[in-house]
Design brief:
alpha+beta, 2 domains, 9 helices, 2 strands
Length: about 160
């Protein structure tokens, strides 16, 4: 076996071992790693412990989020607007072949999401886009139109 294949196998083995270690200890922990570990853990008791440990380790982040609710709301609003109108973004895909890392980028065009657009319009302009408008119904005076169409007689009949 040549050196490239040996190195590639060693890298693969290291990645697999790293993945297994992450399931056991998520102390470096991102939320995604927590989710992955929770999905891999069959014991409910261990899952609760993992969640409480994660919460304790990231108390500063939780406090920051609680203190900056406007920031979270602004981020959520921007995500909703982006989903509603669609757009273009760049995706990066990382792959490993022969022990070498390859990064591929591609431009992705996202179509507008009709349900997000509907929600956005209903909440931003409820008087115009609500399913149940709360404003008064405006009745237009059509007596002049009736006079032109039916003559003076239609006005006197009240119809």
């Amino acid at each position: 076996m040549n050196d490239k294949k040996k190195k590639a196998l060693a890298d693969l083995d290291g990645a697999l071992n790293f993945s297994e270690d992450k399931k056991k200890d998520i102390s470096s922990g991102t939320v995604q790693e927590l989710y992955t570990a929770l999905l891999a853990e069959p014991s409910a008791k261990k899952r609760r412990k993992m969640i409480s440990d994660f919460t304790v380790r990231h108390a500063e982040a939780a406090a920051f989020l609680a203190d900056n609710e406007e920031l979270i709301n602004a981020e959520a609003e921007m995500a909703l607007v982006s989903a509603a109108v669609g757009g273009t973004h760049i995706e990066r895909q990382i792959s490993y072949k022969g022990g070498r890392k390859t990064v591929t980028t591609k431009t992705v065009h996202t179509k507008p999401d009709i349900s997000a657009l509907s929600m956005l319009l209903k909440n931003r302009m409820p008087d115009k886009y609500s399913d149940k408008p709360s404003g008064e119904i405006e009745i237009e005076d059509v007596t002049e139109v009736k006079e032109v169409l039916y003559g003076k007689k239609a006005e006197n009949e009240g119809g």
